[in-house]
């Protein structure tokens, strides 16, 4: 990619990636969400019968080929008495996350909500007996966070007709169509009927779903809650937005709506010995990088079997929220900015403003750019400066130069606001 990408002007209301569908507006504004992988797998937490099972925690049943009858026994021990919906939602709020996507059913097939379609759920099969989704729904409504459900629509290692379990069941005898019609759809109906308005359903691993199967599931969601969004992993290029790969950030700006689901350490479901926590600086850079390329960041936490979000996650999310308190204007409701392809800086924008997210503050404090024409600049200031003291700017070596203080003003990323005349809206160049 060129180091000096071209900036193009687009008229207000004609953003190239706007589909004109108002139901996506909240999601496009939100930028940052909390993913929660929580289920029975939090009990073994990466270890089965004294053996450490490699890989992501929520896959332990599959990786260790645990028979259904044995894995089912975990439900009897599941008693997350420390679960507190107000605390979880409060953490998302404090972190500056606007939506929360929680595993209603992951690939292990255990339902983390009260399902009438099966007894293999948290209310019927555990000593806990409470429905955490009900409690989260109430808290999300109270605290203004969009509640969304993750639902594994193909893989179900517990159900004889679900996909993925070839150690208990004979795949040749599996009837996926029957599973979809008689199990998945009734459960999706429950999730979209019993918990109030749901922001989106996060389907995953579409595997061999046919076009007709994906479409019928999509239609069901729209019939039940027309405004509910659907993740791209419903398959067959359907759904409301694309999903980048897990922990994958595209190298360049992407014009369509997209999201990166990501781990905060190396697992989704809780694993007791995974201490490979990304730093707050790294996580914030990832958030900024993603938003500067037009995407959303869905950052995961993996609560314990007691119902607690691990402290290292709490600390990092809290610190991210502190940075967003000062710099949220440069994230929420913005779009990919005109300055693309630099190593030391990212940009986001909205009509009348470009936000320069400076990763590495220059030693002399002078920021030099080509993409924003000098004539277009009305002023510049630091977003972290409440007094909005104007920064001097001018032309230097044929480049626009903004003179900031020598010392890095904000940490770990400093945002400089560039004001443009009127409502000029700068986007990445068509080839950026
Ligand atoms: O297999 C799952 C995995 O366990 C996890 O839920 C991730 C999150 O994006 N999705 C699948 C793999 O892509």
How many beta-strand elements? 20
Residues in β-strands, percent:
15-25%
CATH fold-level name of the largest domain = TIM Barrel
Q: How many separate domains make up the residues? A: 2
What are the distinct ligands in this entry? ligand FHN
Topology record:
Elements: E1 7-10, H1 25-30, E2 32-36, E3 47-48, E4 51-52, H2 60-63, H3 68-72, H4 74-77, H5 85-95, E5 99-105, H6 122-125, H7 132-143, E6 146-151, H8 176-191, E7 200-203, H9 211-224, E8 229-230, E9 242-243, E10 258-262, H10 280-292, E11 295-301, H11 311-327, E12 335-336, E13 345-350, E14 353-358, E15 366-369, E16 379-382, E17 393-396, E18 399-403, E19 414-419, E20 425-428
Parallel strand pairs: 2-5, 2-11, 5-6, 6-7, 7-8, 9-10, 10-11
Antiparallel strand pairs: 1-20, 3-4, 12-13, 13-14, 14-19, 15-18, 16-19, 17-18
Helix pairs in contact: 5-7, 5-11, 8-9, 10-11
Bound molecules: ligand FHN.
Ligand FHN binds at residues 56, 58-59, 204-205, 246, 261, 268.
Quick tags:
alpha/beta, 20% strand, eight-stranded parallel beta sheet, binds ligand FHN, TIM Barrel, single chain, 432 residues
Detailed description of the structure:
- By secondary structure, the protein is α/β, with parallel strands linked by helices.
- It folds into two domains: 16-330, Glycosidases (TIM Barrel, Alpha-Beta Barrel); 335-430, Immunoglobulin-like (Sandwich).
- The protein is 25% helix and 20% strand.
- It is built from eleven helices and 20 strands.
- It has helices at residues 25-30, 60-63, 68-72, 74-77, 85-95, 122-125, 132-143, 176-191, 211-224, 280-292, 311-327, and strands at residues 7-10, 32-36, 47-48, 51-52, 99-105, 146-151, 200-203, 229-230, 242-243, 258-262, 295-301, 335-336, 345-350, 353-358, 366-369, 379-382, 393-396, 399-403, 414-419, 425-428.
- Strands 8-7-6-5-2-11-10-9 form an eight-stranded parallel β-sheet. The protein has a five-stranded antiparallel β-sheet with strand order 12-13-14-19-16.
- Strand 13 and strand 14 form a beta hairpin.
- The protein is elongated and about 70 Å long.
- The termini are close together.
- The model is unreliable at 1-18 (pLDDT under 50).
- The structure holds ligand FHN.
- The site of ligand FHN has 8 residues, from loops.
- Ligand FHN is lined by residues 56, 58-59, 204-205, 246, 261, 268.
